[in-house]
Design goal:
alpha+beta
Length: about 240
């Protein structure tokens, strides 16, 4: 495709050039029929709020949908990255980033283990909204009480695209500071593949042994990928 044609694909279009099915006011449609009837472009238009010299809010929402047909990819963008899109700017970008963050928090709240984390699937459901789509590797610890209930979550390390630096001292300092009875550890693989690396296995062994010495057992270590997870407990690598 010629460069000029590619540029045309992502350029917001004037309101009069939108497809007929989008030739409506999304705010009024939302008020009359509810948000579930709106297209993705219309929902983005509501977040954008108002148009500008590059087109209406609906034109900008449509352009964003074309540029990011995968909503997960749109949700990964920072305010700075979105602000560079034609017609957006920092205020509109911040509104969209905030909406995605609210969605992630809602997903985590709905999956929050109110009683006990007893299975790797329940741990994944709780952790995935925040870790699954992160661009950098994040290592977190869920602090458990004596009934295996989560009472605190702590981010231990934030690394690069494919590596984070985790030291047992930081893991157990957090656990002891808050009186954790046990820990459930997790980190994500930005590549999307949850299979553990040799470094993941070595680190897990080190942390399990340290937990035995400190009487703060490691309940599990879950590696979060794009569409699934790997559990060291499920694989029989943590007893």
């Amino acid at each position: 495709m010629p460069a000029s044609a590619a540029a045309e694909v992502t350029r917001p279009r004037p309101f009069s050039m939108l497809p007929p099915e989008l030739d409506a006011r999304p705010r009024e449609r939302c008020l009359q029929a509810g948000p579930e009837v709106l297209s993705t472009a219309e929902l983005l238009a509501l977040l954008v709020g108002t148009g500008g010299r590059h087109g209406s809010a609906l034109a900008l929402g449509t352009a964003l949908q074309i540029q990011f047909p995968d909503l997960r990819e749109l949700g990964r963008q920072s305010v700075g990255e979105l602000a560079k899109c034609l017609g957006m700017g920092p205020a509109r970008a911040a509104a969209i980033v905030a909406a995605f963050e609210l969605g992630r928090r809602l997903a985590r709240a709905e999956a929050h283990p109110r009683d006990e984390i007893l299975t790797p699937p329940s741990a994944y459901a709780y952790l995935a909204p925040r870790l699954r789509d992160a661009r950098e590797e994040r290592f977190v610890a869920l602090l458990l009480d004596t009934r295996s209930r989560v009472f605190r979550e702590a981010t231990i390390s934030v690394g690069s695209l494919n590596a984070s630096i985790v030291h047992p001292r930081e893991v157990f300092r957090t656990a002891m500071a808050h009186g954790a009875a046990a820990l459930l550890l997790a980190h994500n693989h930005p590549s999307g593949d949850p299979r553990p690396s040799r470094e993941d296995r070595d680190l897990t062994r080190t942390l399990v042994e340290a937990g035995k010495l400190l009487d703060i057992p490691i309940y599990d270590h879950v590696v979060v990928g794009a569409e699934g997870y790997f559990s060291f407990r499920e694989a029989g690598l943590i007893g």
